[in-house]
Amino acid sequence: MRMLMIALAAMLLAGCTSAGGYSSNSRLVVDWEEVARIERAARASGVDVVWVQYPMKRVSTTSGLDPLDDTDASAQPEN
Question: So where are the chain's domains?
Answer without folding.
Answer: 25-63
